[in-house]
Amino acid sequence: QVQLVESGGGLAQPGGSLRLSCAASGFSNGAMGWYRQAPGKECELVATINKISDSTNYASSVKGRFTISRDNAKNTVYLQMNSLKAEDTGVYYCNARAVIQQFTPVQDRCPMARSGINLWGQGTQVTVSS
C-alpha cells in the first residue's frame, strides 16, 4: 500500500521545538515536502527536499528555524522545528511528488488533488502557545 504516515506535532511554547516525521511506504524516489495550513489561511509550502540530490528549500518564514531532512534507510522525512512562533500554528502535511518542481508555494487547501504522483500524509496539528 502506498501511503505517508505522519507523527510528531503537538503543543509547544514559543521558542520551543518540535519534530515531525513522515514515513513513506510504497514510495521511495522523487521529492518530499511539508505544507502547513492555519485556520482561514491558504496552505503554505514550508520546506522541500529532493530525495536524490538532498537539496533543500525553505519558505522565508521558516528559514533558519526549520530543517528538513531524510533517512533513506527508514524511508522517512523529518521536519525539525526550532524557535517556534505562534504563527507556526497549523496543521502540517507531508506531500510526495515525482519532482521538486511540482510543489507550489501556496495553494488553496491541503491536501489538494494534482495530476501525477501526489501522496499526502494525514496531517498533524502543531500548536504554539504559552
- Specify the biggest β-sheet: 8 strands, mixed
Termini separation: 40 Å
Based on secondary structure, the structural category is: mainly beta
Q: What do the pLDDT scores average to?
A: 94
- Total helices: the number is 0
Proportion of residues in β-strands: over 45%
Shape: globular
Rg computed from alpha carbons, rounded to a whole number of angstroms:
13 Å
Question: How many DSSP E strands?
Answer: 12
Helical content stands at: under 10%
Helix-strand sequence: EEEEEEEEEEEE
Uncertain segments? none
Task: Describe the 3D structure.
0% of the residues lie in helices and 50% in strands. The protein is mainly β and 130 residues long. The strands form two sheets. Strands 2, 4, 5, 6, 9, 10, 11 and 12 form an eight-stranded mixed β-sheet that branches. Strands 1-3-8-7 form a four-stranded antiparallel β-sheet, with no helix packed on it.
Topology readout:
Elements: E1 3-8, E2 10-12, E3 18-25, E4 31-37, E5 43-50, E6 56-58, E7 66-71, E8 76-81, E9 90-97, E10 106-107, E11 118-120, E12 124-128
Parallel strand pairs: 2-12
Antiparallel strand pairs: 1-3, 3-8, 4-5, 4-9, 5-6, 5-10, 7-8, 9-11, 9-12
Give structural attributes.
12 strands; 130 residues; mainly beta
Question: Could you give a quick summary of the protein structure above?
Answer:
With 130 residues, the protein is mainly β.
